[in-house]
Amino acid sequence: MLPGAWLHWACLLLLLRLAQPCPVGCDCFVQEVFCSIEELAAIPRDIPPHATNIVFIETSFTMVEARAFSGSPNLTKVVLLNTRLSHWEPDAFGGLPSLQDLEITGSAFPNISANIFSNLTSLSKFTLNFNMLEALPEGLFHHMGALASLQLQGNRLQTLPGRLFQPLKHLKTLNLAQNLLAQLPEQLFDPLGSLQTLRLSNNALTSLPQRVFAKLGSLQELFLDGNSISDLPPEVFSQLFCLEKLWLQRNAIVHLPPSVFSSLGNLTFLNLQGNALWELPADLFAQTKGLISLSLSHNRLETVSEGTFANLSNLSSLTLSHNAITQLPAGIFRDLKELIKLYLGSNNLTALHPDVFQNLSKLELLSLSRNLLTTLPEGIFDTNYNLFNLALHGNPWQCDCHLAYLFNWLHEYNDRLFNIQTYCAGPAYLKGQVVPALKEEQLVCPVTRDLLGFQAPRMEDREPGSSWDLIAEERAAWSRCTYSNPEGTVVLACDKAQCRWLSVQLSPRQGSQGLMYNATQEWKLKSSCGYMKVIVSIEAQAGEP
Ligand SMILES: *[C@@H]1O[C@H](CO)[C@@H](O)[C@H](O)[C@H]1NC(C)=O
Ligand SMILES: *[C@@H]1O[C@H](CO)[C@@H](O)[C@H](O)[C@H]1NC(C)=O
Ligand SMILES: *[C@@H]1O[C@H](CO)[C@@H](O)[C@H](O)[C@H]1NC(C)=O
Ligand SMILES: *[C@@H]1O[C@H](CO)[C@@H](O)[C@H](O)[C@H]1NC(C)=O
Ligand SMILES: *[C@@H]1O[C@H](CO)[C@@H](O)[C@H](O)[C@H]1NC(C)=O
Ligand SMILES: *[C@@H]1O[C@H](CO)[C@@H](O)[C@H](O)[C@H]1NC(C)=O
Ligand SMILES: *[C@@H]1O[C@H](CO)[C@@H](O)[C@H](O)[C@H]1NC(C)=O
Ligand SMILES: *[C@@H]1O[C@H](CO)[C@@H](O)[C@H](O)[C@H]1NC(C)=O
Ligand SMILES: *[C@@H]1O[C@H](CO)[C@@H](O)[C@H](O)[C@H]1NC(C)=O
Predict the structure, then answer these.
(1) Which atom of ligand 1 lies nearest, measured to the CA of 74?
(2) Which residue's alpha carbon is nearest to atom 5 within ligand 8?
(3) Which listed residue, 88, 354, 428, 431, has the most CB atoms within 10 A of its CB?
């Protein structure tokens, strides 16, 4: 930069400074003041009187004197972030009739006395996050009737005075997350008739008083996750008619009272992940008809009964992964017309009913990974027109004829497999092969059941007097899978363990020839179990008639 230009900027800065005095170590803007120099040893006395916002970041002063800010009576916002504050004189924030937003975050003081904040009648947002507070005095919010948001996250509060929140009739948001609260006084929240969001996440609650939320008729969001709650009182949510979202994940809930959610007609989001539930009461969700998202993953569920989700016609995401579910009733998802995401991974499912996903026409994502599935029934995805994200890995897929439906489905929609690493666990010669990379001809059932039953070849097609030929009844008794060529002249019948008989019609039809001496012929035979190749060699040996 040219020296002239530099001089010009220096003069301009000087003019600005002169025009607008600013405390040493701070930056002053039109009405905002930022003080972030560590050496700042006290609240400056020369804060511009017209300032409305002041922010201190990582400053080293430890005390706020009485009425320290009263020279700037128009301050509406005071923020002290990561400072070394630990002492306060009474009425420290006195003389600030317009103060609306006061934040003291990241300092290390274990207690605070009520008279520091007296007279803050216009305060609407009060934040005391991450300060190591161990207790709060009962009168702390005495004149704060205008408070709408109170943040007390990340302290070391173990209990709270029962009448602490008495003045806070207009409070809309209360955050008590990440403290050490082990119990709550039953009347603690009674004054908070306007409360919309209550955060109690990550405390040490083991139980809740029956009527602790009884007066919170306006509550919309309730966070109780990350505690150690093992039992919920049956009526604990019974007055929360406006509740829309409820977080109960990462607790120790073993069983839920059947009607615990029955007043929650406005509930759209419910998270029960990471509890110890092994059973769900039949009508648990009968009244929460507006649920959109429901998570039950990481529990101990072994079964889920047919009608459990029957009324959830708006449900769009259902998570049942990481349980021990062994089977699902055919109609369990029948009414979930809006379902888009269904997570069933990491369970003990061994088989699925062909109709279990029927009518889930909006389903886009389905996870079946890490179960014990060997195959999927024919037609299982026929009505899932929008399914494009399917997770199948981590199952012991049996790559035989029964997998043909899935195989063809995957090939028809070859971009839809979420994790291509989906391997065959059997039969032995296909073990470890990637399912979608197989050829359809490899999916054969050499020794499995023929569900369609045995169909005996017509008598006139059989070679008369063939030494392999057995009486029809005997064949029917143990033949389970019958392979033949399209002409029906070569028929092979197998049961589970081995192939029991072969019929080859050698007497030529018109226009074809029989087998010559010393000749080999092969046929590709098909059955409902799959394909089989049969090779017949005839060798005439010298000396025999
Ligand atoms: C405070 O604000 C009022 C109204 O906006 C104004 O009249 C007054 O001059 C301001 N006071 C200071 C010290 O700037
Ligand atoms: C409240 O403010 C008034 C006047 O501004 C003052 O006289 C009084 O000391 C303050 N109250 C407390 C408890 O500091
Ligand atoms: C607050 O904590 C300080 C130590 O940080 C202690 O000296 C003081 O007695 C405590 N005050 C109250 C009221 O507990
Ligand atoms: C849903 O909440 C509204 C208030 O927001 C309330 O009037 C209504 O009764 C609630 N609906 C149900 C089904 O509880
Ligand atoms: C389902 O969602 C629709 C659209 O958002 C809404 O109008 C309807 O009330 C919801 N149904 C229930 C039972 O909440
Ligand atoms: C709720 O589900 C139950 C059980 O399936 C059923 O009897 C009832 O009719 C359903 N109610 C509504 C409103 O869908
Ligand atoms: C699927 O929907 C059709 C038509 O809406 C209905 O007749 C059938 O019973 C449904 N199937 C299941 C399993 O709910
Ligand atoms: C589920 O499967 C796991 C491992 O495959 C097994 O340890 C567990 O006992 C099974 N649980 C049930 C209920 O079958
Ligand atoms: C068939 O092969 C055997 C030995 O491989 C031979 O001895 C015999 O002569 C052959 N017969 C005819 C008809 O070719």
Answers:
(1) 1
(2) 348
(3) 88
**Nearest atom, ligand 4, residue 242 CA:** 2
**Residue pointed to by tokens 């839920």:** 256
The domain covering 286-443 belongs, at the CATH homologous superfamily level, to Ribonuclease Inhibitor (3.80.10.10)
- The domain 22-123 having CATH identifier 3.80.10.10: the answer here is yes
Distance 111 CA to ligand 3 centre (A): 6
Beta bridge partners of 536: 521
310 lines ligand 6 (CB under 6 A): yes
Any long-range contacts for 46-54 (C-beta under 8 Å, 24+ apart)? 46/21, 46/22, 46/71, 47/23, 47/71, 47/72, 48/20, 48/21, 48/22, 48/72, 49/73, 49/74, 50/74, 51/75, 52/76, 52/77, 52/98, 53/77, 53/78, 53/79, 54/78, 54/79
User: What are the structural domain ranges in the chain?
Assistant: 22-123, 286-443, 449-506+520-538
Neighbours of 421 (CB within 10 A): 12
| Amino acid 102: pLDDT | 95
> Sign of the C-alpha dihedral, residues 504, 510, 512, 517?
positive
DSSP annotation of 274 reads: S
What sign has the CA pseudo-torsion 419, 421, 423, 429? Answer: positive
CA of 435 to the centre of ligand 8 (A): 25
Sequence-distant (≥ 6) Cβ neighbours of residue 9 within 8 angstroms? none
pTM of the model: 0.78
Terminal alpha carbon distance of the chain: 115
Q: Check residue 530 and give its pLDDT.
A: 76
DSSP readout, 298-338? SS--S---TTTTTT-TT--EEE--SS------TTTTTT-TT
Nearest CA to ligand 6 atom 11: 311
Q: Which of 300, 302, 292 is nearest to 271 (CA)?
A: 292
Q: Which atom of ligand 1 is nearest to the CA of 49?
A: 13
- Decide: residue 288, CB within 10 A, 0-12 exposed, 13-18 middle, 19+ buried: buried
d(CA 370, CA 393): 6
Question: Rounded to an integer, what distance in angstroms lies between the CA atom of residue 274 and that of residue 481?
Answer: 47
The pLDDT score that the predictor gives to residue 458 is 39
The kind and range of the H/E element at 127 are: strand 125-127
Q: Does this chain's domain 22-123 share its CATH topology with 286-443?
A: yes
**pLDDT lower than 50: segments of the chain:** 1-4, 10-15, 17-18, 447-479, 511, 544-545
d(C-alpha 308, C-alpha 292), whole Å: 15
